[in-house]
Amino acid sequence: MNKLGNETLESKAHRMIKEKIQRGEYQVGQRLIEAEVSRELELSRTPVRKAFAILTVDGYLEFEDYKGVIVKNCAITKERYIEMLDIMELFLIATIDKIEAKSLPFSNRRISDKAAEFFHLEEATERQCMEYQLWFLNEFLSYAKNEYYLQVVNKLYDDLLEFAEPDVFQSATKLFDRTLDNYVGCGHCIEEHDYTAARATVKQIINERILFIFR
Asked: Which residues contact residue 130 at a Cβ distance below 8 angstroms, ignoring those fewer than 6 apart?
């Protein structure tokens, strides 16, 4: 997004509508009418129309037949986060299954090096924790050679960063030191061809997060 002093009308409309959704001025389920929003924002209808399209892709709005543009319930609640964790577990287990079935070569070196890089950060921010988690997931899932897995997981993390409720975001970051050790341990098990232990470690990662969020 451009700096405010140089932003286009389209980006201005996008920013203003997004802020109104985040502040609750446009509520979940509310129908947004292009002409009314244009008058409210004192902008022409073209940039508002384009902003609607972008915000639909971003996940803030959705289009419903016979209703038009509706404010979407995009918040990542505890329940939705658990659904996301279940998906990640399925993908990781399926990847381990493929590595075992195909006898794919696996190296834990990149995972160990990335873990050391994280532990050298003096004070990792919550966003950095999330970014490192996503890196480890991408590293493991790359062995499945399945673009769908990568697309889904990256979309899940984009949504977490954008829409997670505070307690969900905290849950996703507070256990990261422990989770990081488990990722390294999982990689070591795969490298040693102990696939049963690797699957158990994945389940441990997921279960610890679910227990933490309901602490």
From this structure: 157, 160, 161, 172, 173
Using H for helix, E for strand and C for coil, what is the string for 111-129? HHHHHHHHHCCCCCCHHHH
Q: Are 31 and 69 in contact (CB under 8 A)?
A: yes
The half-sphere exposure of 189 on its side-chain side, counting CA atoms within 13 A, is 19
CB atoms within 10 A of CB 95: 23
Structure confidence by residue, pLDDT tens digits, 144-190: 999 999 999 998 998 888 888 888 888 777 888 888 999 999 999 99
78 vs 209: CA distance, rounded Å: 11
Tokens standing for residue 199:
């699957």
CA angle 95/97/101 to nearest 5° reads 120
Residue pair 213/167 in contact by the 8 Å Cβ criterion:
yes
